[in-house]
Amino acid sequence: MAVKKNEILARLENSDYKAALQQVQANLNVVKSSLKETSVDLEQAIKDKTRIYKLFEDGYTTEQQKDDADFRIEALNARIKSLEAQIASAKAAINLALANLENTYIRAPFDGVILRKDAEVGEIVAPAVIGGGLTRGAVVTMADLSTLEVEADVNEAYISQIKVNQDAEIILDAFPDERFHGKVRQIIPTADRQKATVLVKVSILDKDKRILPEMGAKVTFLDADTSLKSNENDKPQLFVNDAAIRVDNQKRYVWKVQNFRVIRKNVETGELNGFKRLIKNGISAGDVVAVSGFENLSEGTRVKIKNR
Q1: Where is the YknX-like C-terminal permuted SH3-like domain (predicted)?
Q2: Are strands 112-117 and 105-107 parallel, antiparallel or unpaired?
């Protein structure tokens, strides 16, 4: 399902936050009412002061009554300032309550597609799953299909030949006859000791709605002088390790691995670039070929792929 940024995806239990918001809103209303009453009292106190001052001038009231009128106005002004401060505090409390309530709504952080729903109604969602069958680490899993990338495990012996922004060709298992443009986005600076590989992230430059997350893919990294052309009619050149090229009766061939068995494929080769040989035809980018152990290979021999 496609969703837009800030669209509500789910709601956490928030009855306590709603109650807290109602409480602080009620507190604000009480303080506002008190401020209104005090303002009315102040207006009356000012009128009373004017009347008492006139009576004092005419000799009909005492100095004490005159001072009491002044004191009452000062007290009411102080009360008003206190209530105004309480209103500011109540408004801040309302903003906090609103923020807490808003945080119970899980919104889409970007335009994308929901891949799966990870939590059901009534389950507990926590940033880190500690344990328990009702605890989930996420509400949904989303993906931005406009920024898909391939994660490739590259033999650490060849990682020095790969650079950030290097062009690549991508073949998806779902569409084996199509080629997609790619570019190296990141080389993770740590190696997998068990597999002797380094993780390389390759951005998929072609936008295609058929490309979905978690699809299987093969990546061919291209040399600088064999980068993908912008013209769709110009196919990228394919190079393989020169050690994979075998010769029989002046015919060049490679042992292609398919379904964990080798088959002989005649190839037409071109110039040598370092330790890589240009392949003009016979195999395609993404094909896996044997580079050692030829003495044990024959048509249909079952093999185990150590590094790809």
Answers
A1: 242-305
A2: unpaired
Length of the chain: 308
Tokens standing for 224?
A: 């600088």
Segment 100-129, tens digit of pLDDT: 999 999 999 988 888 888 888 888 887 765
What's the rounded Cα separation, in Å, for the pair 101 and 11? 10
State pLDDT tens for residues 213-240: 888 999 988 875 444 444 444 556 788 8
At residue 44, φ and ψ (nearest 5 deg) are -70, -40
- 178 and 243 co-located in one domain: no
**Do residues 199 and 192 touch, judged by C-beta distance below 8 A?**
yes
> What are the 10-residue block averages of pLDDT along the chain, 308 residues in total?
91 95 97 97 95 91 93 96 97 97 94 87 74 71 86 88 90 86 92 87 89 88 57 64 89 91 92 82 86 88 72
In order, the DSSP letters of 186-203 are: EEEEEEETTTTEEEEEEE
- Separation between Cα atoms, residue 73 and residue 79, nearest integer Å: 10
For 22, the domain range is 2-107
Does the CA dihedral 194-195-198-199 come out positive or negative?
negative
Residues 97 and 75 in one domain: yes
